Predict the 3D structure of the following.
Amino acid sequence: MEIQLYNSMSKKTETFTPIHKEAVGMYACGPTVYNYAHIGNLRTYIFEDLLKRLFLTCGYEVRHVMNITDVGHLTGDADDGEDKMVKSSREKKQSVWDIAEFYTKAFFEDTDRLNILRPTVSCKATEHIGDMIALIRTLEEKGYTYEAGGNIYFSIDRFPAYGRLARLDAQDLQAGARIAVDENKRNPHDFVLWFTNSKYENHAMLWDSPWGKGYPGWHIECSAMSMKYLGNHFDIHCGGIDHIPVHHTNEIAQSEAATGETWVNYWIHGEFLILDKGKMSKSSGSFLTLQTLIDEGFDPLDYRYFCLGAHYRSQLKFSFEGLKAASQARRKLFAKVRALKESCDGSPGADDSGKPYADRFLADAADDLNLPKALASVWALLKDDTVSAAGKLNALYRMDAVLGFDLPNLKTETAPAADEEETARIEALLAERREAKAARDFARADEIRDRLAAEGIRIKDTPDATLWEKI
Ligand code: AMP
Ligand code: ZN
């Protein structure tokens, strides 16, 4: 099956051709482990997982590499601000190493709960400082760097193709309008490869280097680690759309300057998840985590289903109403699959009467990952009475290879109905309380709170949602 993908570099949808027959090299920028991932970040990791599963379903092997940023990512992407890890360590009164370990573990717990396949290689920046230093040395030998104020900078004027991905024109590059002024920079778009001169005292993470004790800039880790594990030229690089103008632009400049060859063939970027009130960001503290959704009574896979409802290149607005609709659809799908399994005693055999639906599904998924369209085939199949239960199951299992709900392993017994009913009852009361509050009927809102408290259910209002737990 041919795969079509929109390439942010050419701004065109292209037919995918791998560099090495059958195996796809794929690099995805990973988390900065100073806090939990928010559900916006997780949308990007779900999109990357869908892409990886599409390749696997189409018969490719995938070598998926993801970095763990545990040093060097400053609060501003343009070399300004403080190291996010160091800031978090001070605020939480724990060592940077403990912070990194804790949030790396939390990250993989979240991605596991979302059925996101683990990367083939996940590599920590702090374990690859030597690779970064070697790459900076190469850039230095080739004349792409300069030293100023104690730091080593990449000089974008030495790399004429700079800004191709983001379509930065000469005027953008001159102005550097949105970039904070660092007087050491010859061009405002130049960026730090190695810091020896931290603005902050007692920087906890320091390494020896040919330029003195210091720490790497953020962008160099992705170039160094991707090339270490995937070679100098590989197929796919993905991430969120916010990385186009600075992070990926700088990654390309330093990688291609070092090797003199094209670094990546296909740049695939996912659009943002937004909240009603706008952008979700970790640094502003206004973010929802997967655990928040679970505390609200949702299954992590409800969120996976929610993300399937929008094309990865469209913005997706998060709302609890939308998540609730996704949850209902996801539960209905699971219930249907359980019923189908029961009716064919668990094993559907080789019946392929549902194949046209699975083929349609896969064709849509291979058309630049059009999952919203592909999902329609799931429901059309379920409704088609001419397809046998076994035919439906076989087709659903093929579709699930991309969807990632692990349908073949769904337990046949249904979830305890009592629990679901109880959750629905509490949710209905909370919805009524929200409405009462919106209508300024605080007496009714308090009455509901008290009634739940009497049943041993504690509720907590947050700016985004009402959480509840049994005590
Ligand atoms: P970070 O941990 O900040 O480096 O981000 C991890 C990944 O999440 C990157 O690929 C970002 O581009 C992506 N990302 C950040 N914010 C959002 C958002 N609101 N929606 C979707 N993806 C996001
Ligand atoms: Zn990166």
